[in-house]
């Protein structure tokens, strides 16, 4: 039986990742009946079938996203599919009608007076077509918002705009209380209740929720609130949370302290209600084989590709695991924080063997997308996914007799993982489908990646741009590892340490109208979390000077 | 700043004058934007965003929320005015106009040398007089339907076209009357508002009962039930795994299947209990009656199938806030489990239950209930922006009716109060009691009140000065509240023509506008946007 997942995206960066993620989903759809046997991913888990008023069938994400109006740009709040009948019931009014352009960049006002202006006038002016896609994706500066490159059509109930009067989204000092401010707006909270209800009621057997959100801004606290009501109503469903962590400036004033503490408070709230939390860094990370830029359009594409791969485990029914199983295995001993690392692409040398490829680029070399992980620690539980090794790819060359007993890539990979994760409760899955990439996924691969995702030693003399334009990378093998890591204690520890600054704490409690006691409670629950982590050996020497 | 003071002892005064000027200009600017909105002949605004999203409104409160106001003074005025809406549900536009006009009138005297403090003293005295007049001209009412209709119609005709306004008027009045209980506070939450993108605005209607925006989810479930037993419950009818542990993964698929079967049985038993109850109650003389299950938790396809086979209509994931209303409406008890306590005593009743499907949306109507204390307003409209516009109007209408009932009185509108208050304040009998130059402040206040009839006239294409003269003349001869007939341009008696405003709206309006205008007059420094920022707070 299919087990549906509802996705929640909160904030601009989460929506960037989301836009790529939905585009990747659609790029992976298999339409060709001859290839249907290859289908692994059950798309109905993330998408729903629907019907417009005019009887047209639709297929749209089970998605609620939150942002401010200006991020929508040319995307109508209700999407394009379910447009009502605008030919009937225009503005009818006995007096004058004034048209005001709500332009995002300028506030120019245009007046047209007259009786009973019919709606068609503006309908003609309406931008037609699905979305505005920059003509040349290598020019990332053309992208102003995630809505510029989101190809997937949304259900009219997916977009939720933050109430105008609530300033939210950037880590300024007031942001922590912004989440609760939003929900105090009766109209907004009823809207969310209705939208969420629509998607939940639609599910035959809800598997859980995926939440993508900022953590150090108001969206993080809005997510806290949503999480707590989700765990209230749907406590048996899984809640996989992916917070995005910006690289926050060092604390040198109250203004720089505030987002750090907001992060700490939200982290604590999330940990209480989430099934699993995998923080990811939204800044540019140096990854081998990638040439991506530091803008959101590029960095989010990398994260989306990794999340897509890691989540295969509960999107491929054959795995036998759903989100609850998966998270409860990984979050053993009540440690809900996990890290995500990836090999993107999973390095397969063209015209070589898996064994040889692995020897040059061992699995250990995977890049960790989770910030502040103390590197020297080994995981206690882990889930590995490798996708897209072609069945025809040779395992090893002749003359490597010690590997003769291996008959499939699975054997070889498991062996590799076995040595990486000795003493750790790990499980792995090999999926056949590679990650299918399609425009407007950015061209982020270095020139030694072939269009089918192999690494070639033959470097073409063309520039990256020209080669990618003529022969872009269409699919890549990817591997990811979700690990429950002793090294994640640093993130929590950094949060706990913030509570030592009594002056800033006091200021924060005044600014956000929070009781100091509430802050202390948070500190204690973070300390409880910290207790679950053994202090890594190389840090034991730095003795504890916390006087409390 | 101290340096400037030493150099120029007059700097402080100069700065105060400058601040006042800036405040007055900001207030005037906002007034300019809003003045065309006032009254049934005001300008409708159509806000169009880059994506073609449309918002149509004439409501001051909605507009202030949509505008991005940067100027700190203007945003203070905007916030006061939206607070007015939060407290009373109406009068936002009038609030902005009155604040602007109070400042404008006072500025004239201040520029001629009147000290702002003296001006505000005059304001205060005049305000007290205005409130007295308000109490004098109010019309006492009970909850008579025709009076409530008058006040709702007045409000709604300033928001939507006349034919629609008149339809919505009946809807909101009857909705409030249906949920109103003797000696209880009116809880507007008992009125559910449901939207349907279908037909036209004029098909909007009031349903005595409950409408949910979801349906049966199984093709064989009954579409209509006449005379239904109703079970409201909060019981999961989905297949649920017992607590899993990591060893689950390593079980063979055979073992796994057996486990699933055992767990499935647990769910099936719960559904069977409900079926057993249905069979029991729908037997003998009741065998022609139907059975409706309203479940707050999920019902999965296999369970739906079991229910459908027994001709039971089952709704899953009923909204939490509807559970309470359903129980109130149908009677019965909300069950948290289906064990032995599940008996026919737990059941409620509905005379008729039917479903209506539009595209992918199904609506279930539960009507003819035991206790119609909760009602649903079903908004219809061909597109989203017209639905939103109706929804905004309905909110205003409901508030107007509730206010009128709670105030137990209403105020003749169309400028009648303003004309009466103006005349009472400039009456020498009152003026002579005011000492010194504070008289000028009171005069400014009285003149400022006239902004309402003036704007109403202007928006109706009439000459404001002609109108004011005409109305004042009429009032001085009749001493009976007289307002403007915006269609003919003549004077009229609003009490006769049924144009009424809420008492609390006017009261709040006079008080808050005077307070803010006084503050802005006295402020000797331009307000900074960062006022609320933390560094200054600490
Ligand atoms: N038929 C009418 N003839 C004359 N004046 C009317 C009529 N109906 C309403 N009014 C007047 O219009 C004014 C209310 O207008 P309107 O509702 O547009 O503004 P508001 O209540 O100040 O602000 P909001 O935008 O919040 O509703 C009141 O002074 C009322 O007496
Ligand atoms: Mg009004």
UniProtKB/TrEMBL annotation, chain A:
Its main location: mitochondrion. It comes from the Eukaryota. Keywords: Mitochondrion. It holds the Pfam family Misat_Tub_SegII. The keyword Amino-acid biosynthesis does not apply. It is found in: Mitochondrion. InterPro entries: DML1/Misato, DML1/Misato_tubulin, Misato_II_tubulin-like, Tubulin/FtsZ_GTPase_sf. Residues 140-315 form the DML1/Misato tubulin domain. One of its GO terms (biological process) is mitochondrion organization. Residues 3-107 form the Misato Segment II tubulin-like domain. SUPFAM superfamilies: Tubulin nucleotide-binding domain-like. The keyword Mitochondrion applies. Belongs to the misato family. This is Protein misato-like protein 1-like. The lineage of its organism: Eukaryota, Metazoa, Porifera, Hexactinellida, Hexasterophora.
From TrEMBL, chain B:
PANTHER family: CHAPERONIN. GO terms for cellular component: cytoplasm. Transmembrane segments: none annotated. Belongs to the TCP-1 chaperonin family. It is found in: Cytoplasm. It comes from Oopsacas minuta. GO terms for molecular function: ATP binding; ATP hydrolysis activity; ATP-dependent protein folding chaperone; unfolded protein binding. InterPro entries: Chap_CCT_zeta (IPR012722), Chaperone_TCP-1 (IPR017998), Chaperonin_TCP-1_CS (IPR002194), Cpn60/GroEL/TCP-1 (IPR002423), GroEL-like_apical_dom_sf (IPR027409), GROEL-like_equatorial_sf (IPR027413), TCP-1-like_intermed_sf (IPR027410), TCP-1_chaperonin (IPR053374). This is T-complex protein 1 subunit zeta-like. Keywords: ATP-binding, Chaperone, Cytoplasm, Nucleotide-binding.
């Amino acid at each position: 039986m299919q087990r549906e997942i509802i996705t929640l995206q909160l904030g601009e960066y989460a929506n960037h990742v989301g836009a790529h993620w939905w585009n990747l989903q659609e790029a992976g759809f298999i339409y060709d009946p001859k290839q249907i046997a290859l289908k692994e991913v059950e798309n109905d888990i993330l998408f729903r079938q629907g019907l417009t008023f005019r009887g047209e069938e639709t297929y749209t994400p089970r998605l609620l996203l939150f942002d401010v109006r200006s991020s929508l740009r040319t995307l109508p709040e209700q999407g394009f599919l379910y447009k009502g009948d605008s030919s009937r019931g225009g503005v009818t009014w006995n007096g004058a009608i004034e048209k005001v352009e709500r332009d995002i960049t300028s506030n120019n006002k245009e007046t047209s007076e007259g009786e009973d202006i019919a709606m068609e006038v503006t309908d003609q002016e309406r931008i037609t077509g699905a979305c505005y896609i920059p003509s040349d994706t290598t020019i990332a500066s053309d992208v102003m918002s995630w809505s510029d490159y989101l190809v997937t059509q949304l259900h009219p109930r997916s977009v939720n705009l933050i109430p105008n009067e609530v300033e939210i989204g950037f880590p300024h000092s007031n942001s922590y209380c912004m989440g609760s401010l939003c929900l105090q707006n009766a109209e907004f909270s009823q809207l969310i209740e209705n939208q969420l209800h629509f998607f939940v009621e639609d599910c035959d057997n809800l598997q859980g929720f995926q939440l993508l959100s900022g953590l150090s801004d108001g969206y993080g606290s809005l997510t806290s609130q949503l999480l707590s009501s989700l765990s209230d109503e749907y406590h048996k469903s899984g809640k996989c949370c992916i917070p995005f962590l910006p690289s926050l400036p060092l604390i040198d004033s109250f203004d720089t302290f505030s987002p750090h503490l907001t992060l700490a408070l939200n982290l604590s709230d999330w940990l209480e209600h989430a099934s699993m939390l995998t923080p990811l860094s939204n800044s540019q990370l140096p990854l081998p084989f990638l040439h991506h830029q530091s803008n959101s359009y590029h960095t989010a594409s990398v994260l989306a590709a990794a999340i897509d791969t890691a989540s295969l485990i509960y999107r491929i029914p054959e795995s036998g695991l759903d989100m609850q199983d998966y998270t409860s295995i990984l979050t053993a001993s009540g440690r809900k924080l996990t890290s995500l690392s990836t090999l993107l692409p999973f390095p397969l040398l063209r015209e070589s063997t898996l064994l040889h490829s692995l020897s040059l680029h061992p699995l250990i070399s995977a890049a960790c997308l989770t910030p502040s992980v103390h590197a020297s620690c080994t995981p206690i539980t882990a889930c590995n996914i490798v996708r897209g090794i072609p069945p025809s790819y040779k395992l090893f060359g002749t003359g490597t007799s010690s590997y003769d007993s291996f008959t499939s890539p699975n054997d070889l990979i498991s062996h590799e993982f076995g040595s990486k994760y000795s003493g750790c409760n790990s499980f792995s899955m090999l999926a056949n489908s590679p990650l299918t990439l399609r425009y407007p996924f950015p061209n982020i691969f270095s020139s030694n990646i072939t269009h089918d995702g192999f690494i070639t030693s033959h470097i073409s003399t063309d520039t990256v741009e020209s080669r990618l334009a003529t022969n872009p990378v269409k699919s890549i093998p990817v591997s990811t590892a979700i690990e429950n890591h002793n090294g994640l204690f640093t993130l929590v520890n950094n949060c706990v340490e913030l509570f030592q600054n009594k002056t800033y704490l006091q200021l924060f409690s005044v600014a956000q109208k929070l009781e100091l006691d509430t802050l202390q409670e948070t500190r204690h629950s973070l300390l409880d979390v910290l207790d679950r982590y053994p202090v890594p050996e190389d840090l034991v020497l730095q003795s504890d000077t916390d006087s409390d | 700043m101290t340096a400037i003071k030493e150099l120029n002892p007059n700097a402080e005064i100069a700065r105060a004058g400058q601040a006042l000027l800036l405040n007055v200009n900001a207030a005037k600017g906002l007034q300019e934007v809003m003045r065309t909105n006032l009254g049934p002949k005001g300008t409708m605004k159509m806000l169009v965003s880059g994506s073609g999203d449309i918002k149509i409104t004439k409501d001051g409160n909605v507009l202030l929320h949509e505008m991005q106001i940067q100027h700190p003074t203007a945003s203070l005025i905007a916030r006061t005015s939206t607070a007015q809406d939060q407290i009373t549900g109406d009068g936002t536009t009038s609030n902005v106009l009155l604040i602007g006009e109070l400042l404008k009138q006072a500025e004239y005297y201040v520029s001629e040398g009147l000290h702002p403090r003296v001006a505000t003293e005059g304001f205060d005295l005049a305000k007290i007089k205005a409130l007295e007049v308000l109490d004098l001209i109010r019309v006492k009412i009970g909850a008579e339907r025709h009076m409530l209709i008058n006040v709702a119609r007045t409000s709604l005709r300033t928001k939507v076209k006349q034919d629609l306004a008149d339809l919505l008027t009946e809807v909101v009045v009857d909705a409030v009357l249906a949920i109103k209980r003797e000696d209880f506070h009116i809880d507007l939450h008992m009125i559910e508002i449901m939207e349907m993108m279908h037909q036209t605005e004029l098909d909007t209607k009031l349903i005595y009962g409950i409408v949910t925006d979801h349906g049966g989810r199984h093709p064989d479930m009954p579409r209509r039930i006449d005379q239904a037993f109703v079970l409201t419950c909060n019981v999961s009818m989905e297949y649920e795994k017992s607590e899993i542990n990591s060893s689950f993964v390593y079980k063979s698929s055979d073992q796994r299947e057996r486990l699933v079967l055992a767990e499935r049985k647990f769910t099936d038993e719960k559904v069977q209990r409900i079926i057993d109850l249905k069979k029991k109650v729908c037997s003998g003389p009741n065998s022609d009656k139907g059975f409706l299950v309203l479940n707050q938790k999920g019902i999965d396809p296999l369970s739906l199938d079991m229910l459908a086979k027994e001709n039971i209509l089952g709704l899953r994931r009923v909204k939490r806030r509807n559970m309470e209303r359903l129980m109130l409406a149908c009677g019965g008890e909300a069950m948290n489990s289906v064990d032995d306590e599940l008996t026919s005593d737990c059941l409620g009743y509905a005379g008729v239950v039917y479903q209506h499907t539009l595209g992918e949306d199904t609506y279930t109507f539960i009507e003819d209930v035991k206790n119609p204390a909760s009602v649903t307003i079903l908004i219809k409209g061909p597109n989203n922006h017209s639905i939103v516009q109706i929804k905004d109007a309905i909110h205003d209408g409901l508030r107007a009716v509730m206010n009128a009932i709670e105030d137990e009185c209403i105020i003749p509108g169309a400028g009648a109060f303003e004309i009466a208050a103006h005349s009472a304040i400039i009456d020498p009998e009152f003026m002579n009691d005011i000492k010194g130059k504070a008289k000028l402040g009171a005069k400014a206040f009285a003149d400022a009140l006239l902004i309402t009839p003036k704007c109403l006239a202007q928006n109706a294409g009439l000459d404001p000065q002609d109108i004011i003269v005409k109305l004042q003349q009429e009032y001085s001869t009749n001493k009976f509240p007289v307002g403007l007939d915006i269609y003919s341009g003549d004077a009229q008696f609003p009490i006769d023509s049924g144009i009424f405003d809420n008492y609390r709206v006017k009261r709040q309006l006079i008080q808050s506008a005077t307070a803010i205008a006084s503050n802005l007059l006295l402020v000797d420094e331009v307000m900074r946007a960062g006022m609320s920022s933390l560094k200054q707070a600490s």
